[in-house]
Amino acid sequence: GRVVAVVPAGDSSDLAVAVAAAAAATEAWAGLGGPERGQHLTRLATTLGGDHRGTMGALLALAGGRPLCRTLGADLDLGLRLLQVPAGGAQLGPPGLEGWTPLGVVAVVLVGPCSLPALLWKLGPLLAMGE
Where is each Aldehyde dehydrogenase domain found (predicted)? Predict the structure, then answer.
């Protein structure tokens, strides 16, 4: 029954800033190579599932309107696995993708409230491949 956050509406200039920031980071991220990207993604998953687990659960509960016990359990655990799997694949080097060149900035379109698993199901493989 009370306001927990206020978020300003974005416009096309906010989108332009986000795309410019992604474009600036793309070359460095893609240049790391699969093993290094995989290590970064694994470290991110470990951090989110470790000391920051409670904070992540609370944010997910607020964002999705779901009980904290649900976000700390299935949602967070599944989301972290959906980040760890492509991270492991990137560290090993996916067979058949020798000479793979990342394409660049990729937009991920999400509709309505988005769960962490839904977000990482889309983002994990993209990040692991250097996008």
Answer: 2-130
